[in-house]
Design goal:
Distance between the termini: 7 Å
Structural class: alpha+beta
Number of domains: 2
Largest sheet: 14 strands, mixed
Oligomer: single chain
Number of strands: 16
Helix content: 25-40%
Shape: globular
Radius of gyration: 25 Å
Length: 471
């Protein structure tokens, strides 16, 4: 965003920041909020504390103290952000996303830093990891919250934690547990999600799936190939049994004698229920390089519970990339049985929205440029970055509403445009009027126009909130 644009938006920014004034008891402390947010929205090439402070004519130490020492209510500020989103953007087709991001760091003083998997670099490196909750509805998306993942090595060294200002209440928790805490907080602030979606790092945790089902929350979760269950659930025996009426009886309940073991989802592809089912092709979205087309199959899967017995029955969705058939993804969902493949697939592939948030916040806001050594400063930096991003998202939405003729209906596959909604691609082998040929060379489109249950989907190149590029 260039200087001229920032100046033209100054009245909007002042009004927006005024929504958070009661999070600051002192006027001089409150003034630093505007300094930090304006710095994040500026064209500065580096957006750590020192460049922001120098550009605003403020002593860098003063802005450092604003982040890590001065008293203000960062938790209330985060709650206010979520309440604003709930008030202004809540509606049908809301998709929430759990995801994490990593930022390389030098040294060993940044809170939570250690050698661990760094997704940004694609290798194990010295970095920190933060877990986030994203929000998406129609053209709008933002990050609602974020929290540091504290490795076990840090939790075991409480002296090191105290040196970094990490409270004793902040301990090691699995990433899925942090994600669930973020979800609970958002719900308490009035947000509601029609769906949640997340990658296999979270989908592989049965405890998370059970917790979401217990809360009545629908999800579509990517799961690893090792996720197991039964297509035909085995019989469970509850009758006690003792051989010769002596000794300890077999435990109950238990699988009936001769029951097949639970199978991995990749092994289930060879079972008749999936093997003999025709693939259905869908255009997931249109990217800069053309349509992204995936073909899918769906069955109901009874998952293996923590006790080894049949547990919840879920949708198992298998998706294969048409351009690269070796790329196969597996998803499970607790949606009602009558839910269509199209809806499940649409939710499953909505995770790019939170990835877009990460990309934009790092390239435009400076999310990855925190250089402090205190936990409170990092926590506040994550919150303020979300505040700055929310302002961009609001401005961008207002700009889009000024443009007439924005049509959100799906378009036909192959008509040369970028369709904002997922569409079904019918091949001759799937079209009853096309004979019995198994050829799939030519495909035509069947636009999917029913919008009563469907989460809205737009093309990533159209919904990017990338600072001055989006404004």
């Amino acid at each position: 965003m260039d200087v001229a644009k920032i100046r033209s938006l100054e009245p909007k920014l002042v009004e927006f920041l005024g929504l958070f004034h009661d999070c600051f008891d002192r006027k001089d402390t409150r003034a630093h909020l505007g300094v930090y947010v304006r710095g994040q929205l500026s064209e500065l090439p580096e957006k750590s504390v020192e460049p922001i402070a120098l550009d605003a004519g403020v002593a860098p130490r003063t802005l450092q103290e604003f982040l890590s020492q001065l008293r203000w209510q960062e938790d209330r500020l985060c709650d206010r952000l979520q309440q604003l989103v709930a008030t202004e953007h809540q509606g049908p087709h809301v998709v929430g996303t759990f995801d994490e991001t990593s930022d390389p760091k030098k040294g060993d003083k940044t809170p939570g830093v250690q050698k661990q998997w760094c997704g940004r670099l694609g290798k194990t490196e010295n970095c920190i990891v933060t877990v986030h909750l994203g929000f998406a509805r129609e053209d709008f998306h933002c990050l609602l919250d974020g929290e540091l993942y504290l490795p076990e090595s840090w939790d075991a060294d409480r002296d090191r934690c105290r040196e970094a200002g990490i409270p004793d209440s902040v301990t090691y928790r699995p990433k899925w547990r942090i994600a669930l805490e973020l979800y609970n907080r958002a719900i308490a602030n009035g947000l509601r999600f029609d769906w949640l979606t997340f990658d296999e790092g979270y989908g592989s945790k049965p405890e998370l799936l059970r917790e979401l089902t217990a809360r009545g929350q629908l999800y579509v979760a990517e799961v690893p190939r090792s996720f197991s269950g039964w297509l035909d659930p085995p019989r469970v025996v509850t009758r006690p049994y003792r051989r010769s009426r002596r000794g300890r009886g077999r435990k109950i309940p238990r699988l009936a004698s001769g029951s097949p073991p639970a199978r991995r989802v990749d092994e289930l592809l060879n079972y008749p229920q999936l093997r003999d089912q025709p693939w259905q092709r869908f255009r997931v979205k249109d990217g800069e390089k053309g349509p992204m087309v995936w073909e899918c199959k769906r069955v109901m899967l009874t998952v293996k519970g923590a006790d080894g017995l049949p547990g919840e029955t879920l949708h198992l969705l298998v998706a294969r990339n048409v351009l690269d058939p070796s790329e196969v993804k597996f998803f499970v969902s607790n949606a009602p049985p009558e839910t269509s493949i199209e809806i499940l697939l649409l939710v499953a592939f909505s995770r790019w929205r939170v990835e877009r948030c990460f990309e934009d916040q790092k390239s435009e806001i400076g999310l990855d440029q925190y250089e402090g050594r205190r936990y409170l400063g990092l926590k506040r930096h994550l919150i303020l970055s979300s505040v700055s991003y929310l302002f961009l998202a609001r401005v961008r939405q207002e700009e889009r509403e000024k443009k007439p003729g924005a049509d959100r209906l799906p378009i036909a596959y192959g008509h040369g445009g970028r369709g904002p909604l997922l569409g079904l691609v019918i091949s001759p082998s799937q079209d009853k009027t096309a004979g019995e040929s198994g050829e799939e060379d030519s495909v035509a489109a069947t636009p999917q126009r029913s919008r009563s249950q469907r989460p809205h989907h737009t093309d990533p190149t159209e919904v990017a909130i990338a600072g001055h590029r989006a404004l």
